Amino acid sequence: MNQMNLVEEKQLKKDLPPFRVGDTVNVHVLIREGDKTRVQVFKGHVISKRGSGMSSTFTVRKNSFGVGVERIFPMHSKMIKKIELVKRGRVRKGKLYYLRKLKGKAAKVKEIR
Amino acid sequence: MVEGLIGKKVGMTQIFSEDGSVVPVTVIKAGPCAVVQKKSEKKEGYSAVQLAFMEDKLSKKISKPLKGHLDKAGVSSSRILREFQFDDSSEVQPGSQLFVDIFQEGEKVDVIGTSKGKGFAGVMRRWGFHGGKSTHGSRTYRKPGAIGASATPAKVIKGRKLPGQMGHQRVKNKNLQVVETDKDNNFLLVKGSIPGAKGDYVMIKKAYFRPEKKSRKE
Fold it and tell me: What is this model's ipTM?
């Protein structure tokens, strides 16, 4: 596996914030419209992190005007300009899929003080 | 120009292309390969070049006849020799080395190797047959069913798909795109999968079907 690292290392991001499942993050996503590019911020809870190295991804869930929206991002994608850690959440599970069934106040993640 | 190299499969990963999309790639340690022998139209009846794959760790366990053959070209040690087509005009001499840079990024290559062995496999695994019913009193679970007609032709037609050895055979994956070449580490990254397990030897050739080359028979 040593030799594989030589290939992957060049593409891995080294400046990722140490965010965990349950945290609230701002993901700055590059969006291409024709020949123009702009940055859009996707803010929500991290409900899952999986994989290792180049193939790792994370899922962010947010509530957009009453509709739940989830996006899965490759951790080291070039389309992500920045990930900001907004709030730390206190959770007891590795995957927060149970949030999908909850609404309103019940779907809140407690913040770490 | 020599048309190919010997390589060793390192593994698979994914990288991001310029537009941000994910590209699955196989990493091959391609070369360096030393030229051991040149075969000519005059002497052997066909022109080819015999290459030896140079390992990081040189093997000491090689037979004396092989050692003698390698010594002739001044190659210290190698476990694997393969022949490649080439045109006589080039200045490749026995003893000289070839590196990944014979391939360019964006070029198409064929990768030839031995697929992973699956052993003696039944008809469902080997050919994707549906098998029989699992319930309703059925007793044919994974069998092929009928394999031919009756008194005419009174034999099983050749080529009938039946159980047998699956895998561990020569496989060529054609027209794989070269994504990256890394001369420092002798890495060749091709898009998609290649036959064999990690650490298996493969032959990498420039693609047989090339758009600019319309007919090969000319």
Answer: 0.77
